[in-house]
Amino acid sequence: MKIVDKMQEEGLDTFLILNPHNIAYLAGFKPSSSSVLLIKEEPVIFTSKMDLEDANLNSKVGTEEFKSLDEIKKLLEGRVGIEGSMKMETFERLKKDSASDFKITGIVEELRQIKTNSELKNIIKALRIAEKSLKQVEFNKKSENDVAAEIEYNMRLNGSNKAAFDTIVASGTRSSLPHADPTFKAIEMPVVIDWGAEYSNYCSDTTRTIIETEKQEEIFDIVFEAQKSAVKVIKPWVKASYIDKVARNVIEEYGYGDAFIHSTGHGVGLEVHEAPSLSKRETIKLQKGMVITIEPGIYLENEFGVRIENMIHITNKGNVLNRIKTKISM
Amino acid sequence: MKIVDKMQEEGLDTFLILNPHNIAYLAGFKPSSSSVLLIKEEPVIFTSKMDLEDANLNSKVGTEEFKSLDEIKKLLEGRVGIEGSMKMETFERLKKDSASDFKITGIVEELRQIKTNSELKNIIKALRIAEKSLKQVEFNKKSENDVAAEIEYNMRLNGSNKAAFDTIVASGTRSSLPHADPTFKAIEMPVVIDWGAEYSNYCSDTTRTIIETEKQEEIFDIVFEAQKSAVKVIKPWVKASYIDKVARNVIEEYGYGDAFIHSTGHGVGLEVHEAPSLSKRETIKLQKGMVITIEPGIYLENEFGVRIENMIHITNKGNVLNRIKTKISM
């Protein structure tokens, strides 16, 4: 297990893992209730009675019943690694009357950035389900909400166990809100659709914008150029922040810099947003095996917005995983 | 604003609120990205550029652009309240080079336990949507996954903006797993369906079990008796742990104590699980205005499981909000 090597590098004797995504990554079983993956010599999952039958069926590591945090505390030895995602209230209970030396570590999140072949397969499967599910939608005379409902329904029937995140269908002036909830109003143009499926705990994340007018096409073409320019410079050991800069430069050149109001992308895997972030402040360099999104957008308040988001697997270059066309129509 | 009185009681000069549910509760706007609600004299929401247009439209309090945590740190004064749900990694960045005195406080979560009339209306609306959506399902020859997909699709069309949580449809032996994911296998008996809608950010949470054999009916009747007995003793100022005890006693009397492998219920509101917990260890007493679930269950490993979950509004007694029948059939 790689994780044990990483623990040694960081001088950790015990690792207390609570984040369900991290547990799923290391143990192949994603708990639905209070659970702890404890790694000393042998890893053990402590899970509530409620999840125990499921854990026994699916976990790659040994399982025991989770009784209380106090019972877990008795098992901690030496320097104890904890996750940055641990809640303050949990840490308060953990450190109370404890002699342990706690250290926040991101070693699981770091390992998770580089996808194995089987992880990549799940991500691609999630993406194919999502793409197929959009193609099956009939847009005619529907509301934003109808379209979102239909995409999510199709994804289920096509083999996804859930949407990877709340589906965005934002049309007309609402398309200028990057994270708009779908409304019950009839679809107008343009339509921004940002959707993803989850398959075997892995996520896809893609955006398409359907356009109509010349102005919309003009903006679309700028965003598309930013998209292509960013993908072109992706390769191992390039700074993630540089990719953001390349996409942003294209949009700035056309005078829309202020209208690109979010970062250029992010890692995708067990979570729809995970490291690295493709933003100005990110210090990480890209590596072979990462899966990231590239999602430049231009948002014109009270007018409309356009976003194009693809998923990229980093090999010796940026390998676009999407097969759905960038310019789609109703 | 009640929150300011609570802050004074706890000796807080500043309150730094990051939890999106807490922000939604206090400001009427639920952010989709990094946001901070800062309360000193006047409350202000700092939200990312991406959410700013939406915040300006919907927030009840003033809005500003969120630039960085460092900018926020400059605004902290005196004793600073933070939430127990804050992540350790956020706190590390917050306390670095900071002279502030931080104190974890649960005052928003405490206020959230008692629902206002308008909150109650949203919860009931979510419940009615969920109930109607189950009634519309055709079970004939479907898989667990088909039924889950159809419930969620119906909820959307009936006015919910999303499922309140991952819909559970667990049939045959899988019904013995309280949190089973729906599979692609054809529905067998019994079927446990645990589903809820979200409406205006408020959740519903209900479970029905459809039974067939005499053994299943025998277990159903015990769970139903536990359900009714628990509801009967609900009233203000009774301990939440007592309600758990009453439900558990009924099931224990019939010899199935070991098969009731979770707590009896929980609060519902902006989150599907919130305070109080109806469990052995809960120290909270029930109060007028709380909305809770009562969900006893019996899970017979490798055989089947039965759970019945209703939503209860606490007035002078336990007022069951559900209108869907407890015994439903396919």
Characterization of this structure:
The structure is a homodimer of 330-residue chains. Helix content of chain A is 34%, strand content 23%. The first copy, chain A, has 330 residues and is α+β, with helices and mostly antiparallel strands. Chain A has two domains: 2-111, Creatine Amidinohydrolase, Chain A, domain 1; 117-320, Creatine Amidinohydrolase, CATH 3.90.230.10. In chain A, strands 4-3-2-1-5-6 form a six-stranded mixed beta sheet. Chain A has a three-stranded antiparallel beta sheet with strand order 7-10-11. In chain A, helix 7 crosses helix 8 (144-157) and helix 9 (214-232) runs antiparallel to helix 10 (240-253). The radius of gyration of chain A is 22 Å and the shape is globular. At the A-B interface, helix 3, helix 5 and helix 8 of A face helix 3, helix 5 and helix 8 of B.
Structure, briefly:
Two copies of one chain form a homodimer. Helices cover 34% and strands 23% of the residues of chain A. Chain A has ten helices and 19 strands.
| Order of adjacent strands in the largest pleated sheet of chain A | 4-3-2-1-5-6
Structural class of chain A: alpha+beta
CATH homology superfamily name of the largest domain in chain A: Creatinase/methionine aminopeptidase superfamily
Order of helices and strands of chain A: HEHEEHEHEHEHHHEEEEEEHHEEEEEEE
In CATH, the architecture of the largest domain in chain A is Alpha-Beta Complex
Globally, the shape of chain A reads: globular
